[in-house]
Amino acid sequence: MTPLIINIGARHPPSHILPINIYRSRGYLTITCQTGTMTGELIFITGATGFIGSATALAALKAGYRLRVCVRKPSEKLQTLLLQYSQQVEYVTVPDLTEEAAFHGKLDGVDYVLHLASPLPRGTDKKDYFIPAVKGTTTLLKEADRVASIKKVVITSSMAALIPITGLPKGGVLKGRPF
After folding, report:
1. Which of 72, 103, 135, 166 could form a disulfide with 98 if both were Cys (CB 3.0 to 4.6 A apart)?
2. Looking at residue 130, what DSSP letter applies?
3. Which candidate, 48, 89, 51, places its Cα nearest to that of 72?
4. 3-class SS at 86?
5. Per-residue confidence at 102, pLDDT binned at 50, 70, 90?
6. How far is 169 from 139, CA to CA, in rounded Å?
7. Domain boundaries, the chain
8. What's the confidence (pLDDT) of residue 35?
9. How far apart are CA 161 and CA 41, in angstroms?
10. Closest by alpha carbon to 95, among 122, 68, 71?
11. Beta-sheet pairing, 28-33 with 89-93
């Protein structure tokens, strides 16, 4: 079983993996998906209407993967963006990712799951952001655990996770600790 991984900043990954590479070069974000023996496999992706999600979806399609795109509501912009790959794309609508049965049957036959969706904070109440983010992720993971064909699940976080829920401090600069 060859895993699908996302390498951030990696330019020369080991040959035994099939990566989606995300890196920044000269101020631009570049997302590529290396082709290989696994082309034609099915990826379930959430968050494809977002910046990183749409670029990841395009990279996977260009590499020959098929996509099952999960959207909260139909997106004309996304359908237009992926139009030239329409033979490789199917859409499923899940209005509420936190519902217990939201993903039931939607992952059947999937090889990889890319969970890129998360609610954006509105206001300063943590429960409006954290509870839906955690519940949506755990609901997806429970369904993925039930589907034997799934080889890898990739979960991303949002840049919003780095910003205090109360907003940016005066002056707009965040000071953090090195990892």
Report:
1. 135
2. H
3. 48
4. helix
5. very high
6. 34
7. 37-156
8. 53
9. 31
10. 71
11. unpaired
134 Cβ contact partners less than 8 Å away, ≥ 6 residues apart: none
Q: In CATH, what is the architecture of 37-156?
A: 3-Layer(aba) Sandwich (3.40)
Q: What's the token pair of residue 103?
A: 């993903």
Local structure of 178: helix, strand or coil:
coil
How far apart are alpha carbons 70 and 136 in whole angstroms?
A: 12
Provide the 3-class DSSP secondary structure of residue 72. coil
pLDDT tens readout for residues 26-55: 555 555 665 544 558 999 999 999 888 999
- Residues 50, 17, 32, 54: what is their CA dihedral angle, to the nearest 10 degrees? -20
Which tokens hold the place of 165? Answer: 């829920």
- pLDDT of 17 reads 41
Helices (H), 94-164: 130-146
Q: Strands 18-25 and 28-33, how do they pair?
A: antiparallel
**Angle of CA points 88, 33, 3, to nearest 5°:** 95
How far apart CA 150 and CA 5 sit, in angstroms, is 13
Q: What is the maximal distance between C-alpha atoms in the chain?
A: 51
Mean pLDDT of the chain: 78
